[in-house]
From TrEMBL:
It comes from the Bacteria. InterPro entries: Cro/C1-type_HTH, Lambda_DNA-bd_dom_sf. This is Transcriptional regulator with XRE-family HTH domain. Residues 17-69 form the HTH cro/C1-type domain. GO terms for molecular function: DNA binding. It holds the Pfam family HTH_31. PROSITE patterns: HTH_CROC1 (PS50943).
Length: 410
């Protein structure tokens, strides 16, 4: 069912997989510690599944992935080259059979390794496009970048540590992009490759950055406690590695700050309110030491990003009223299009949950102005649009067009 029929709601997908597993509503409800009436309302669409941790529990009970229940799209096109590479090409690059054995398949790249500077330039420009929300354009170039990363690792570059650091950056970008479009399993493979390359680079900052990708990928597959452990351990570790510079080095502050934000997200998804706010406070302290919104190591970290994360974390903890009290007043003009769009999607969801549908649609359309492709391929945006569409009395043309773009309707 995954990758097709994205117009189905999460509840309809729960019904599909429950029947495939031969489970009654009562049995499945018992498995997740809920009432049969609760599950019945979820499946009939009378009640929404808002919390990712509950979706993860249902996915575990049904022996499927979180992405299977969210119904993620699998086609993401570049704006100017709709016939260009797509997710299957990334999968092929990541799962290159020649990487299975260097004995069976001796590498052919040592005589003509790729140029580090050329690959680095393409990686940097692709990361910039990701931060601008241009997911299709990034996906179009990722198969080539992943292949170049593999060739760098196999080659005899003069600076092999630099080659592994660049490979880590490439796989980090792949993992982040795949997470955004719901390819959680592939995102985990890319994150694992990013960590492996980072370890071989022996560069603490590269390792910390890769750990951020690992934590995000773990969250995407519903392993919230593991994500918290990876992110918090990496934040502590990078501080220990640089010593006194941890309180002044802007790169270290940015990396550790983002890792604390990932820790807070994971804790919130796991339902651990105390740890979530403790990690948020650690991130806030790092942002205050940094002193301004910046983009060191392409983290986009700073005081504003911490505030934006308070919105998403508040939603995960069901603090809807609090989110709506301060969230709309945040000035997101100093963050990237990707971050601003994510903030607006979360706010739209909060307004939709509060049955303030006109405001929810307004925030979604504003997010579309920031980063259209990110909105169209966001599971949260799609569920929000689907809810708005089903409740709408007249057919608002803007809502209809957005629903079609998000594949929320047939």
């Amino acid at each position: 069912m995954r990758g097709a029929g994205d117009q189905f709601s999460v509840g309809e997908r729960v019904t599909f997989y429950r029947r495939r597993r031969g489970l009654t509503q009562r049995v499945l409800a018992d498995l997740v510690g809920r009432s049969e009436d609760w599950l019945s309302k979820i499946e009939r669409g009378e009640r929404e599944l808002r919390r990712l941790d509950v979706i993860a529990e249902l996915a575990q009970a049904l022996r499927v992935s979180v992405g299977d229940l969210l119904g993620q799209p699998v086609l993401v096109e570049a704006r100017e080259k709709p016939d260009h590479e797509d997710i299957p090409a990334i999968r092929t690059a990541l799962m290159n059979h020649r990487r299975l054995s260097t004995v069976l398949f001796p590498d052919q790249t040592r005589q003509h390794p790729p140029r580090l500077d050329a690959v680095e330039q393409l990686t940097t420009s692709s990361r910039r496009r990701f931060l601008n929300g241009e997911l299709g354009d990034v996906i179009a170039v990722l198969p080539r970048l992943i292949t170049e990363a593999q060739n760098l690792e196999d080659g005899t570059a003069q600076n092999l540590h630099h080659a592994f650091a660049l490979s880590s950056r490439i796989h980090h970008l792949a993992s982040s992009t795949l997470t955004k479009v719901g390819e959680a399993d592939l995102a985990w493979i890319a994150a694992e490759r990013a960590m492996a390359a980072a370890d071989r680079s022996s560069e603490p900052r590269v390792i910390a950055a890769a750990a951020r990708a690992g934590a995000s990928a773990l969250m995407a597959i519903g392993r919230f406690d593991d994500s918290l452990q990876v992110a918090s351990q990496a934040a502590r570790w990078i501080g220990q590695q640089v010593g006194s510079d941890a309180r002044t080095d802007p790169v270290v502050l940015s990396l550790s700050g983002m890792l604390y934000l990932r820790s807070a997200e994971a804790a919130a998804l796991a339902g651990d309110r105390q740890t979530a706010y403790e990690m948020l406070e650690m991130a806030d302290q790092a942002a205050k030491r940094l002193g301004a919104d910046a983009n060191y190591w392409q983290t986009n970290f700073g005081p504003t990003n911490v505030m934006l994360h308070r919105v998403s974390i508040g939603l995960d903890l069901d603090d809807i009223a609090t989110v709506l009290n301060f969230g709309p007043d945040i000035d997101a003009s100093k963050v990237t299009s990707e971050r601003a769009a994510s903030w607006r999607i979360h706010l739209a969801h909060a307004f939709a949950v509060s049955a303030r549908d006109d405001e929810a649609l307004g925030w979604l359309l504003a997010a579309q102005e920031d980063a259209a492709q990110l909105v169209w391929h966001s599971a949260l945006a799609r569920e929000t649009v689907r809810s708005l569409y089903r409740r709408s009395v007249g057919r608002n043309q803007g809502l209809v067009e957005l629903a079609e773009r998000c594949r929320a309707i047939a």
